[in-house]
Amino acid sequence: MALVRIEPNDRVFIAGKTGSGKTVLAKELLTPYPYVVVLDNKGRFNWPGAGLVTKLDLLPKAAQKYNHIVFRPNPLLEADAAAFKEEMDAFFWWVYYRQNCILYIDEASQPGVIDSFHIPAGLNVIYKRGRELNIGCWASSQEPVNVHNTLMSQADHFFAFITQMQSHRDKMAGYMGDPVKYTIPRNYKFFYFHPATMDEAEMMEPLQI
Ligand SMILES: Nc1ncnc2c1ncn2[C@@H]1O[C@H](COP(=O)(O)OP(=O)(O)OP(=O)(O)O)[C@@H](O)[C@H]1O
Ligand SMILES: [Mg+2]
Protein backbone atom coordinates (compact mmCIF):
# COMPACT_ATOMS: atom_id res chain seq x y z
CA MET A 1 0.00 0.00 0.00
CA ALA A 2 1.14 3.53 -0.68
CA LEU A 3 -0.21 6.79 0.63
CA VAL A 4 -3.66 7.53 -0.74
CA ARG A 5 -3.95 10.81 -2.62
CA ILE A 6 -4.94 13.59 -0.24
CA GLU A 7 -7.74 15.64 -1.80
CA PRO A 8 -7.54 19.41 -1.27
CA ASN A 9 -10.55 19.36 1.04
CA ASP A 10 -9.54 16.29 3.05
CA ARG A 11 -8.81 16.19 6.77
CA VAL A 12 -5.39 14.98 7.94
CA PHE A 13 -4.03 14.25 11.39
CA ILE A 14 -0.35 13.77 12.25
CA ALA A 15 0.88 12.59 15.66
CA GLY A 16 4.38 12.18 17.05
CA LYS A 17 6.70 13.32 19.78
CA THR A 18 8.95 16.31 19.41
CA GLY A 19 11.52 15.86 16.65
CA SER A 20 9.74 12.83 15.21
CA GLY A 21 9.21 14.34 11.74
CA LYS A 22 5.70 15.87 11.72
CA THR A 23 6.61 19.30 10.38
CA VAL A 24 8.98 17.91 7.76
CA LEU A 25 6.24 15.56 6.51
CA ALA A 26 3.59 18.28 6.48
CA LYS A 27 5.82 20.68 4.55
CA GLU A 28 6.74 18.04 2.02
CA LEU A 29 3.13 16.93 1.46
CA LEU A 30 1.64 20.45 1.47
CA THR A 31 4.06 22.01 -1.00
CA PRO A 32 2.27 20.89 -4.19
CA TYR A 33 -1.12 22.28 -3.11
CA PRO A 34 -1.92 25.70 -4.56
CA TYR A 35 -3.34 27.47 -1.49
CA VAL A 36 -2.14 26.75 2.02
CA VAL A 37 -2.43 28.69 5.29
CA VAL A 38 -0.25 27.46 8.16
CA LEU A 39 -0.91 28.34 11.79
CA ASP A 40 2.59 28.40 13.27
CA ASN A 41 2.21 28.93 17.00
CA LYS A 42 5.62 27.38 17.62
CA GLY A 43 7.36 29.91 15.38
CA ARG A 44 9.46 27.32 13.62
CA PHE A 45 7.65 26.74 10.35
CA ASN A 46 10.09 28.30 7.91
CA TRP A 47 8.81 27.81 4.40
CA PRO A 48 10.76 29.25 1.48
CA GLY A 49 8.50 31.20 -0.85
CA ALA A 50 5.66 31.52 1.64
CA GLY A 51 4.45 34.85 3.01
CA LEU A 52 5.10 35.21 6.73
CA VAL A 53 2.38 37.12 8.60
CA THR A 54 2.54 38.07 12.28
CA LYS A 55 -0.53 40.30 12.49
CA LEU A 56 -4.08 39.24 11.75
CA ASP A 57 -5.00 42.37 9.83
CA LEU A 58 -2.18 41.75 7.36
CA LEU A 59 -3.59 38.38 6.28
CA PRO A 60 -5.86 39.68 3.49
CA LYS A 61 -3.02 41.60 1.88
CA ALA A 62 -0.67 38.63 2.13
CA ALA A 63 -3.31 36.41 0.52
CA GLN A 64 -3.30 38.67 -2.54
CA LYS A 65 0.42 38.24 -2.92
CA TYR A 66 1.20 34.71 -1.70
CA ASN A 67 -0.44 31.35 -2.30
CA HIS A 68 1.28 29.87 0.73
CA ILE A 69 0.99 31.81 3.98
CA VAL A 70 2.49 31.15 7.40
CA PHE A 71 0.61 32.93 10.18
CA ARG A 72 2.83 33.27 13.24
CA PRO A 73 1.06 35.17 16.03
CA ASN A 74 3.12 37.25 18.43
CA PRO A 75 4.30 34.78 21.12
CA LEU A 76 3.69 37.41 23.80
CA LEU A 77 -0.01 37.06 23.09
CA GLU A 78 0.01 33.58 24.58
CA ALA A 79 0.70 35.11 27.98
CA ASP A 80 -2.69 36.80 27.81
CA ALA A 81 -5.06 33.86 27.49
CA ALA A 82 -8.13 35.91 26.57
CA ALA A 83 -6.31 37.90 23.87
CA PHE A 84 -4.74 34.75 22.45
CA LYS A 85 -8.10 33.03 22.29
CA GLU A 86 -9.62 35.98 20.50
CA GLU A 87 -6.77 36.08 18.01
CA MET A 88 -7.09 32.37 17.27
CA ASP A 89 -10.81 32.60 16.74
CA ALA A 90 -10.50 35.59 14.42
CA PHE A 91 -7.81 33.74 12.49
CA PHE A 92 -10.00 30.63 11.99
CA TRP A 93 -12.96 32.73 10.86
CA TRP A 94 -10.67 34.46 8.36
CA VAL A 95 -9.67 31.07 6.94
CA TYR A 96 -13.32 30.03 6.80
CA TYR A 97 -14.35 33.07 4.77
CA ARG A 98 -11.25 32.84 2.62
CA GLN A 99 -12.24 29.31 1.49
CA ASN A 100 -10.39 27.28 -1.17
CA CYS A 101 -7.29 26.52 0.82
CA ILE A 102 -5.72 24.00 3.15
CA LEU A 103 -5.39 25.04 6.79
CA TYR A 104 -2.50 23.37 8.60
CA ILE A 105 -2.24 23.72 12.38
CA ASP A 106 1.34 22.95 13.40
CA GLU A 107 0.64 21.82 16.98
CA ALA A 108 -3.01 21.48 17.65
CA SER A 109 -2.78 21.16 21.41
CA GLN A 110 -2.97 24.69 22.81
CA PRO A 111 -4.20 24.41 26.40
CA GLY A 112 -7.40 26.36 27.02
CA VAL A 113 -7.77 27.33 23.35
CA ILE A 114 -7.67 24.11 21.34
CA ASP A 115 -7.45 21.09 23.60
CA SER A 116 -9.52 18.02 24.37
CA PHE A 117 -12.28 20.25 25.84
CA HIS A 118 -12.08 23.43 23.74
CA ILE A 119 -12.32 24.10 20.05
CA PRO A 120 -12.66 27.66 18.73
CA ALA A 121 -16.01 28.22 17.00
CA GLY A 122 -14.38 29.18 13.70
CA LEU A 123 -12.28 26.03 13.67
CA ASN A 124 -15.28 23.88 14.51
CA VAL A 125 -17.15 25.36 11.57
CA ILE A 126 -14.17 24.79 9.27
CA TYR A 127 -14.07 21.11 10.26
CA LYS A 128 -17.83 20.60 10.06
CA ARG A 129 -18.76 22.68 7.01
CA GLY A 130 -15.45 23.43 5.29
CA ARG A 131 -15.51 20.54 2.84
CA GLU A 132 -18.10 22.18 0.59
CA LEU A 133 -16.05 25.36 0.66
CA ASN A 134 -13.00 23.41 -0.44
CA ILE A 135 -11.17 23.92 2.82
CA GLY A 136 -8.79 21.14 3.79
CA CYS A 137 -7.83 20.78 7.46
CA TRP A 138 -4.55 19.34 8.60
CA ALA A 139 -3.34 19.27 12.18
CA SER A 140 -0.38 17.78 13.98
CA SER A 141 0.36 17.26 17.65
CA GLN A 142 2.89 15.87 20.08
CA GLU A 143 0.06 15.04 22.45
CA PRO A 144 -2.90 13.36 20.78
CA VAL A 145 -4.49 12.87 24.21
CA ASN A 146 -4.88 16.66 24.49
CA VAL A 147 -6.31 17.20 21.01
CA HIS A 148 -9.99 17.85 20.40
CA ASN A 149 -11.76 14.76 19.05
CA THR A 150 -13.15 16.74 16.13
CA LEU A 151 -9.66 17.06 14.67
CA MET A 152 -9.21 13.30 14.76
CA SER A 153 -12.66 11.84 14.23
CA GLN A 154 -13.01 13.80 10.98
CA ALA A 155 -9.62 12.76 9.60
CA ASP A 156 -9.39 11.03 6.21
CA HIS A 157 -5.67 10.34 6.62
CA PHE A 158 -3.73 9.54 9.78
CA PHE A 159 0.03 9.64 10.22
CA ALA A 160 1.58 8.43 13.49
CA PHE A 161 5.27 8.86 14.19
CA ILE A 162 6.91 7.73 17.41
CA THR A 163 5.03 8.72 20.57
CA GLN A 164 6.53 7.86 23.91
CA MET A 165 3.56 7.60 26.23
CA GLN A 166 1.28 4.61 25.96
CA SER A 167 -1.72 6.90 26.51
CA HIS A 168 -0.95 8.74 23.25
CA ARG A 169 -0.54 5.47 21.37
CA ASP A 170 -3.81 4.21 22.85
CA LYS A 171 -5.61 7.32 21.66
CA MET A 172 -4.17 6.97 18.15
CA ALA A 173 -5.01 3.26 18.14
CA GLY A 174 -8.63 4.21 18.83
CA TYR A 175 -8.67 5.69 15.34
CA MET A 176 -5.92 3.78 13.53
CA GLY A 177 -6.26 0.30 15.02
CA ASP A 178 -4.13 -2.06 17.09
CA PRO A 179 -0.82 -2.01 15.18
CA VAL A 180 -0.28 1.55 16.38
CA LYS A 181 -0.75 0.49 19.97
CA TYR A 182 2.05 -2.02 20.22
CA THR A 183 4.64 -1.03 17.62
CA ILE A 184 6.74 2.12 17.79
CA PRO A 185 7.96 3.59 14.52
CA ARG A 186 11.61 4.63 14.75
CA ASN A 187 14.01 6.72 12.66
CA TYR A 188 11.32 8.87 11.01
CA LYS A 189 9.21 5.90 10.01
CA PHE A 190 5.49 6.36 10.57
CA PHE A 191 2.20 4.54 10.46
CA TYR A 192 -0.26 5.60 7.79
CA PHE A 193 -3.97 4.84 7.97
CA HIS A 194 -6.76 5.70 5.55
CA PRO A 195 -10.07 4.92 7.31
CA ALA A 196 -12.08 4.72 4.06
CA THR A 197 -10.21 1.62 2.85
CA MET A 198 -10.33 -0.15 6.24
CA ASP A 199 -6.89 -1.64 5.53
CA GLU A 200 -4.73 -1.95 8.61
CA ALA A 201 -2.48 0.94 9.51
CA GLU A 202 0.82 0.34 7.74
CA MET A 203 4.35 1.24 8.72
CA MET A 204 5.89 3.45 6.03
CA GLU A 205 9.52 4.15 5.22
CA PRO A 206 10.83 7.63 6.08
CA LEU A 207 10.36 10.41 3.56
CA GLN A 208 13.53 11.05 1.59
CA ILE A 209 14.54 14.59 2.37
N1 LIG B 1 12.25 11.85 6.87
C1 LIG B 1 13.30 12.35 7.51
N2 LIG B 1 14.55 11.96 7.17
C2 LIG B 1 15.64 12.45 7.80
N3 LIG B 1 15.58 13.38 8.79
C3 LIG B 1 14.38 13.81 9.17
C4 LIG B 1 13.16 13.33 8.57
N4 LIG B 1 12.12 13.93 9.17
C5 LIG B 1 12.63 14.75 10.10
N5 LIG B 1 13.99 14.70 10.11
C6 LIG B 1 14.91 15.45 11.00
O1 LIG B 1 14.32 15.64 12.27
C7 LIG B 1 14.19 17.03 12.56
C8 LIG B 1 12.89 17.27 13.32
O2 LIG B 1 11.81 17.02 12.45
P1 LIG B 1 10.46 17.86 12.58
O3 LIG B 1 10.78 19.30 12.74
O4 LIG B 1 9.59 17.48 11.45
O5 LIG B 1 9.90 17.29 13.96
P2 LIG B 1 8.47 17.59 14.63
O6 LIG B 1 7.79 16.27 14.80
O7 LIG B 1 7.75 18.62 13.85
O8 LIG B 1 8.91 18.13 16.07
P3 LIG B 1 8.19 19.23 16.99
O9 LIG B 1 7.01 18.56 17.61
O10 LIG B 1 9.23 19.56 18.01
O11 LIG B 1 7.82 20.38 16.12
C9 LIG B 1 14.28 17.73 11.22
O12 LIG B 1 14.78 19.02 11.32
C10 LIG B 1 15.20 16.83 10.45
O13 LIG B 1 16.54 17.15 10.77
MG1 LIG C 1 7.16 20.49 14.28
Description of the structure:
The chain has helices spanning 22-30, 59-65, 81-98, 121-129, 149-153, 166-176, 179-182; strands at 11-15, 36-39, 51-53, 68-71, 101-106, 135-141, 157-160, 190-193, 202-204. It is α/β, with parallel strands linked by helices. It has one domain (11-148, 155-204): 3-Layer(aba) Sandwich (Rossmann fold), CATH 3.40.50. The chain has a 9-stranded mixed beta sheet with strand order 3-4-2-5-6-1-7-8-9, sandwiched between helices. Helix 3 runs parallel beside helix 4. The longest helix has 18 residues, at 81-98. The model has no long low-confidence stretch (mean pLDDT 95). The site of magnesium ion has 3 residues, from helix 1.
What's this model, at a glance?
The protein is α/β, with parallel strands linked by helices and 209 residues long. 30% of the residues lie in helices and 19% in strands.
Supply database-style keywords.
209 residues; alpha/beta; Rossmann fold; nine-stranded mixed β-sheet; 30% helix; binds adenosine-5'-triphosphate; binds magnesium ion
Overall morphology: globular
Level-1 CATH class name: Alpha Beta
Strand content: 15-25%
Separation of the first and last Cα atoms: 21 Å
The run of helices and strands is EHEEHEHEHEHEHHEE
Proportion in helices: 25-40%
> And the CATH topology?
Rossmann fold
Q: What's the total number of strands?
A: 9
Structural class: alpha/beta
- CATH 4th-level superfamily: P-loop containing nucleotide triphosphate hydrolases
